[in-house]
């Protein structure tokens, strides 16, 4: 026998009250007629404390009543006297991590069920076996612990909570947190045994989060509750073979793809099974499935990185996803990454040094490494103008007729043809050796740059400084000067000049600090244009080691103008022959079109907050953005297409506010695809620029490595047991409370005491009456 | 139906215990009838005492002719006169005598005394003496003068059977009154608990003895009064005065015994000083043993 609430034994102190009363009972002293009182002394004491108890039987009855009452309140409990199960607190901690979605088939005749469904079934069975005064509670443990049904006798609330059970998309490392929360619930009801049952697939990741304060809380409760606290871990995966192939990560190489280029999607796959498996990967760009599959064999525990490519022909903001065949855990069988297929940049080269048009092909391609054998390289070196070289280097593939390009469309015109061009379709206008332009052309160019575009002015040997300074370098009331500097003479240098890199933190040079990406140190200039003076606000981008200015830039409106003092002709230096020359020019083009800054990829972990970069020009003038689930977009809308707006509350739209650093904090998201765009006002549809953000479930959820069961007692306390579904019947504690018997005896004793008191009082009255009569 | 007083008081056991005994007077009694007790008067008896000179009127049969022959004078013989004895039981029937312990088999003091008085009356009546009965509390309540005969004995027994204890005690006054009403010498059996002023009681006893009465005092107390067996805190109430004393019997046991012994000693010494017999009796003693012991004592003392 034991006591469920031994603290109530303190009520036994109340038994001293009737004892004291029976000792004190002065009015109940017998009066005895006695002839010899003359032989007695009167007691002079004034107190009436009797050294002996009076009415001992009645006192014993009263003490018995009190004893039974105290035992009933202490809830005397016996394991052998009742066939019903003893009252207990049953607290279920259900693992709701994404890994619980793993589908397992117990045998061929039964359908597949997930671990979560198994947990629901087992939990339901345990709760249905409870009877009052037992109580139950349900806690969901994922990354955090949440009490969905508090400890109470009504099981309906717990059963309802189980019906609505879903796993989260986030990492589920919070079993220990769940157990700590369960200990908090158990602490409130100590008089009965508390059983904490953790329903989990026993993956190691589920027990990964082990905060010291929670472990300390569990240990403290263990000490407080002692053997009345039992902890069980129900292994839902017992007997099941856990095998999983997962795509743990993917990214777009180079962050972006260019139209006409190959998009490279690099995927990392992991085999957490115990057997070798072959992963069949498939790439999908937007809705287009690539025909090529790759098969990668993987040993148990092995990882592989696979590069998958697909040619992209159209500019788009889309999503590239890598898929493998679905297995037991489907959420990690695909991985999506946003893919920005940037449109062709258009550069207009105005060749002031010749009358070349857009259709002419360079005749000196072989000199630059071309394949035509008929050109005599030595004689044509001085004839290759720099504009041609520039055109070539901007998109050598196209110039060579090859399929791949740099995504730059180049148009070469003469200065006269500038007036007929629609400048707005270009990203950069390059003026090569242009000495002067008509006013209208200058106005157009100025407007072009002011609206956020860029102009490149290359001053080679053919540029006339006087005309240049009067036109391009001069502004008026309506427009500022286009050139950032006044041009000087073309000067030859006996000692070739290099490009000073040391101490130059200009972003143009950043990648060239790694010589594998381009060695600028081999570049030499033999001829340079001198700079007379710089316009106000102009900055020197590049210098030579001896201080000659190589490149200058300044802002005009929202755009910028870059002036190069060196030409690309072969007689002016060897820049056109340097291996780093194309990279430098592409970098310059990126810099001038604002594509230098590389944003971090917009791939976030599901259910984890993240910070996104929103510094692109499209978001420049807005501080509020909307993050919309892709499923809420109107069908057929792609990229920058308008989106039908719905009520934000209905469609799950998340309103974000950008910081001064042009970043936004994204709250925890469910796994899926989202579109980031400018915030819509009222009922207006979302127009304009948008980009994708993908949220993927943490790849650790795909790791099916099991937790070492031997470690659990060390983690959660020495009495922790790992049980299987067949052991659930053993959870019921035998025995029952004896309160009914005690109350029955108590009632009888109380009535007996009352009757005895009545009889005793009547007897005393008779004695007094008899004595009086005598 | 009221029990026959004879059978009520005189059980076969009691009768058997006193069968071989007789109550002889130690002193010379004045009996009306010739009996076995010495009489202070000279009368006709078998015992020659002495001679006296003949006086005219004496009966000639009492002349001692041998003496005449020897002395040529006329002398008469004087013989001891044996007469019947008056034995009067003075039974205290005050309230204190009505005390009865909780022991169901014990008699109250008054009942015990009644049995004693009945037995003595029967014994006396059987030996042709005259039993009498005086019951008293603060005054004489009943007075049955000594008489012979069965009828008188029956009257005594009936009276004893109907007694009820009550009232206070004044032994001193009662004894003095009683002796006035008992002119003839005899035996007085005083059965009382003697609660009263000791000096007064002794003085009354002395007075009785001085009047020529033979006095036997049966100092009768209840067993509870002897042992004081109480343990619980009790309020003791005086049966006669109604005064109450609350005391702790356990704490006062020693004092009580001491005072009881002093009381008994005082009464005994008082009896001894006036030549009265003293016999202490408690109600737990069987009556037949008390009687037999006392009669045996008297027999042995008379040799």
Description:
- The complex is a heterodimer of chains A (774) and B (303).
- Chain A is α/β, with parallel strands linked by helices and 774 residues long.
- Chain A has 15 helices and 36 strands.
- In chain A, the strands form 9 sheets. A 7-stranded mixed sheet of chain A has the order 20-19-21-22-27-26-25, with helices on both faces. A 6-stranded mixed sheet of chain A has the order 8-7-4-9-10-35, with helices on both faces.
- In chain A, helix 5 runs parallel beside helix 6 (212-225).
- Chain A is elongated and about 155 Å long.
- The two termini of chain A are 57 Å apart.
- With 303 residues, chain B is of the alpha/beta class.
- Chain B has helices at 5-9, 12-17, 65-71, 109-126, 150-161, 171-181, 198-210, 223-227, 249-273, 287-302; strands at 34-42, 48-53, 75-83, 86-92, 130-136, 140-144, 186-192, 214-221, 234-237, 244-247, 277-282.
- In chain B, the strands form 3 sheets. Chain B has a 6-stranded mixed sheet, sandwiched between helices. Chain B has a 3-stranded antiparallel sheet with strand order 1-3-2, with helices on one face.
- In chain B, strand 5 (130-136) and strand 6 form a beta hairpin.
- In chain B, helix 4 runs antiparallel to helix 5 (150-161).
- The relative contact order of chain B is 0.16.
- The A-B interface holds A 29-43, 48, 50-52, 54, 771, 774 and B 95-99, 109, 193, 195, 221-222, 224-225, 228, 230-240, 243-248, 250-252, 255-256, 259-260, 263.
- Strand 2 of chain A pairs parallel with strand 9 (234-237) of chain B, so a sheet runs across the interface.
